Structures are given as C-alpha cells and as structure tokens.
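User: Show me a protein chain along with its predicted structure.
Assistant: Here is one chain, sequence first, then structure tokens.
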Amino acid sequence: MSDKKRVLIVEDDQNMGFLLKEFLSDNNFDVTHCLDGNSGLAEFEKNEYDICLLDVMMPGLDGYSLAEAIRLRKNVPFIFLTARSMKEDKLRGFHLGCDDYVTKPFDEEELLCRIHAVLNRYNPEDSFRVAISPSYELGDYTFDTQNYALIYDGETTRLTHRESDLLTMLCANQDVLVKRNDLLISFWGKVDYFNGRSLDVFIARLRKLLSNDPKVKIETVPKVGYIFTVDN
C-alpha cells in the first residue's frame, strides 16, 4: 500500500487543475482531479481521501454545496481554492467548516505548507510525536508521559488518558501558541460547541493539578488558544 496522502481536487479550470495535480504529485501526493462538483462528489463517495481542495464557482454543484455534502458523509478536511475574496465569502466558507480558505492567484509552495498544516491537525502524531519526551520537568513537578503520572513533592497523581495527552501536547509546544481548534481536531475530531466545552473542562483540570507551583502556567489567548509556560 502506498503511504502517500490522497488529495481530491475539484476545479473546473482544466489548466489550473492539471498544474496543481502535477505539482502535488511531484511532492509525494496521490492526486485525483475532477472538473465539476457532481463528478467530484461521485469520486469522493467511491474512494478514500485525506484532504479535498475545492473551487467555489463551478457548474452544477458549486463548492459550498459540495463541501456540505462532503461534511455529511465523512470528517475529511477541505480547503477552498477560489477567486472569491470578499469577507462574506470567506466567512461562509469557514462557517461550512473549511480548514483553510485560499484566494487565487496563490503561491504553490505556500499552498503546500497549508496542506501539510491541515493534515498535521488531523494526524497530530505526524507533527507532535517527534517532539514528545518520556518526561518533563515542570518547575516543582515531574510529568511522566509514559505512565500518566504527575509527581509533586513525592506524591504521584495519575492523570486520565485525555489529561495526559493534552498536557503532553502543551509540554511539547512549550512557550508556543497552541491553537484551540488544533486541539479540538486532534482530540475530538471536529470543532463544535460541545467539544469546546469539554476542552475547557480539561484545561481547568490541568490548571488545578498544576496549581501548587505558580511558575507553571497555562495562559489563555481568548478565542485563539493556549500558551504553556514554566517560569525560571
């Protein structure tokens, strides 16, 4: 079996679709190109894809309608590639659940980076596992990631699987903004109100568990994410 990520491009501009397919194929993707929304949906229903790149203005089924149909079938990330650059168009795209909105003309290398960023959010092990350590020294705490153990003053607290995974991700990205939506996609599979409330509960639990040492902080950046810091 190929380890290439599978990309579905739905783009009615045949030349652009061809060039984009060639570029992504050269960068180790397995790419299928469809020329309209109806054929794109039929192809999506027949085969498995890791990400979809969707034009908006297409004959038949437009990109917005195609995105809605895709979301009803499977939680697969998608990026809009479109000439529509008005604020209301972008807001509509994000309200439909798109993972990124790229306006034409675009730089292919930048698009490639955006694709990798989206795929990493859906497959967090690709981007985070290499940075994970067996343990972290967090001020007066020791965090044993392998045994889900948080140790303070000789006392060990066992974390739940989700608490441990969340704290591990924060530790692996210490002093760096971790976006809220990235956490929701990584641990709950999608961004919605109820998953957001669950994330709030877990962050509150971690803050309480780490409250014995004021040097250890989980700072909230409102509506964006969190920064995990350990003061010297």
